[in-house]
Amino acid sequence: MTSRTSLNSLGRLLPYFLVGIGFGIVATKSQIISWFRMQEMFRFHSFHMYGIIMSAIVVGAISVWLIKRFQLRHLGGETINVSPRVQGAGYRFGIGGSIFGLGWGLAGACPGPIFALLGNGVAGAVVLLLSALLGTWSYAVLRPFLPH
Question: Could you tell me if residue 92 is inside a domain?
Answer without folding.
Answer: yes
